[in-house]
């Protein structure tokens, strides 16, 4: 019995020693680890699809293309990337369901997603400490939650930028926007940009988010922008209605009488290159429209790496349009994720808590010239009421010329943060 007990004790000692040596040498990760050498990192991307309002299938399509591309070249520092996708359905319950799925699947982050229902999806993610990287920027919670890491300034900087763009050329402005909680912030932001150019506030025209008839709003917008009858006055109409923007401008174009054609404008996401192509290219009703964007024009060479991935790994998914701002945002968000994960040691566990800590403490992340270097440390936050998480307030100004979105002549990219700092609180 004594010999047997001694043998068992020796056996346990040898096994323990071997396990310790293996851990020191980096043989693998501990049970439950998600991201050591040879491990798998799970993330999620969600966006609305097949709804009666705004749909963003290109964002989930871009996420899956990125997954195939990065795994084909060995993953991120040897870690396989597993991308879950979810249809957010453009409803609070759909957004919450996607967030809960991310929790259940132990995602280390939600990346490059779209939802206007920030309260619904942020609460489950915050409860589990899961960071939200590079949302589209349509909900105010994306710029308030300490678990959110935006890559652009969201709709706030786009709308303020549109106000700046129109304030330089217009005498009267009418804004057509959704009659929603998210839509209620838009007039305040547009007016901030207009006031920076000593312009009067825009007329605020509301519309049902899923409306198919915009004739009343079109007539109201025309009345507000051609009402003075002064030949020197220039009216401008801007619509920010997501996929319904095309429907509105079609109704606006048909509204009579139009003695003088007002300048039309919108923001990227409501108007895109694919929309211009689909509505006639050079003959499109959007010819001459002013567009505000977060990023360089789609023809800029800085987008070539993304275009190659779409060509090689989207596998015929025609929802993935490299000119689309949703797909572009998802690409940038996954670029951030990749750069953050590369900063972990080969055998260091990658989980939501460690990803969050790295985002909070790391040096700025480069995105290949698509944005300024991004950093979410405390000292990088901006003093914007209602949007304290904005770290990138840059916009670019574009115009539709000969059927293509090109840089607006004479206009350089502009940081809208100072304008937003002066704006009244909107959230």
Could you write a compact summary of the structure shown?
The chain has 427 residues and is α/β, with parallel strands linked by helices. The protein has 13 helices and 13 strands. The longest helix has 24 residues.
Any idea what the radius of gyration is?
A: 25 Å
Distance between the termini: 75 Å
pLDDT < 50 runs, ≥5 residues:
1-33
Going by helix content, strand content and strand pairing, the class is alpha/beta
Shape category: globular
Strand percent estimate = 5-15%
Outline the structure in words:
The protein is α/β, with parallel strands linked by helices. The protein is 37% helix and 15% strand. The protein is built from 13 helices and 13 strands. Strands 6, 7, 8, 9, 10, 11, 12 and 13 form an eight-stranded mixed beta sheet that branches. Helix 2 packs across helix 10. The N terminus is likely disordered.
List the helices and strands and how they pair.
Elements: H1 2-25, E1 40-47, H2 57-72, E2 80-87, H3 92-104, E3 109-111, H4 118-128, E4 132-133, E5 148-149, H5 154-167, E6 172-178, H6 186-196, E7 203-207, H7 215-225, E8 235-239, H8 245-254, E9 263-267, H9 273-278, E10 290-293, H10 304-313, H11 325-341, H12 352-361, E11 394-401, E12 404-407, E13 414-415, H13 417-422
Parallel strand pairs: 1-2, 1-3, 3-4, 4-5, 6-7, 6-8, 8-9, 9-10
Antiparallel strand pairs: 10-11, 11-12, 11-13
Helix pairs in contact: 2-10, 2-11, 3-4, 5-6, 7-8
């Amino acid at each position: 019995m004594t010999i047997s007990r001694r043998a068992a004790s020796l056996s346990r000692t040898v096994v323990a020693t071997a396990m310790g040596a293996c851990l020191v040498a980096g043989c693998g990760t501990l049970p439950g680890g998600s991201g050591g050498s040879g491990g798998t990192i799970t993330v999620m991307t969600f966006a609305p699809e097949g709804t009666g309002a705004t749909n963003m299938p290109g964002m989930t399509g871009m996420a899956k293309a990125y997954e195939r591309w990065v795994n084909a070249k060995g993953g991120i520092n040897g870690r396989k990337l597993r991308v879950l996708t979810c249809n957010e359905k453009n409803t609070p319950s759909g957004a919450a369901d996607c967030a809960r799925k991310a929790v259940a699947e132990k995602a280390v982050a939600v990346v490059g997603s779209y939802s206007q229902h920030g309260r619904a999806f942020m609460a489950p993610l915050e409860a589990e400490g899961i960071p939200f990287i590079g949302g589209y920027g349509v909900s105010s919670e994306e710029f308030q939650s300490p678990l959110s890491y935006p890559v652009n300034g969201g709709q706030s900087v786009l709308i303020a930028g549109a106000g700046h763009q129109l304030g330089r050329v217009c005498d009267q402005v009418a804004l057509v926007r959704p009659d929603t909680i998210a839509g209620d912030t838009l007039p305040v932001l547009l007016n901030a940009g207009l006031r920076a150019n000593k312009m009067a506030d825009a007329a605020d025209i509301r519309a049902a988010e899923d409306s198919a008839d915009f004739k009343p709003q079109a007539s109201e917008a025309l009345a507000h922008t051609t009402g003075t009858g002064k030949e020197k006055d220039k009216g401008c109409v801007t619509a920010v209605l997501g996929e319904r923007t095309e429907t509105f401008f079609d109704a606006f174009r048909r509204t009579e009488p139009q003695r003088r054609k007002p300048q039309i404008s919108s923001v990227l996401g409501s108007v895109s290159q694919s929309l211009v192509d689909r509505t006639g290219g050079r003959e499109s009703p959007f010819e001459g429209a002013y567009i505000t964007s977060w990023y360089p024009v789609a023809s800029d060479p800085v987008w070539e790496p993304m275009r190659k991935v779409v060509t090689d790994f989207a596998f015929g998914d025609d929802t993935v349009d490299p000119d689309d701002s949703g797909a572009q945002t998802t690409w940038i968000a996954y670029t951030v994720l990749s750069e953050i994960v590369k900063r972990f040691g080969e055998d260091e566990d990658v989980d939501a808590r460690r990803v969050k800590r790295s985002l909070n403490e790391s040096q700025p992340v480069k995105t290949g010239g698509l944005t300024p270097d991004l950093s979410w440390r405390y000292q990088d936050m901006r003093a914007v009421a209602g949007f304290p998480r904005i770290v990138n307030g840059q916009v670019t100004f574009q115009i539709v010329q000969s059927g293509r979105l090109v840089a607006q002549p004479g206009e350089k990219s502009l940081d809208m943060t100072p304008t937003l700092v002066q704006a009244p609180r909107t959230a």
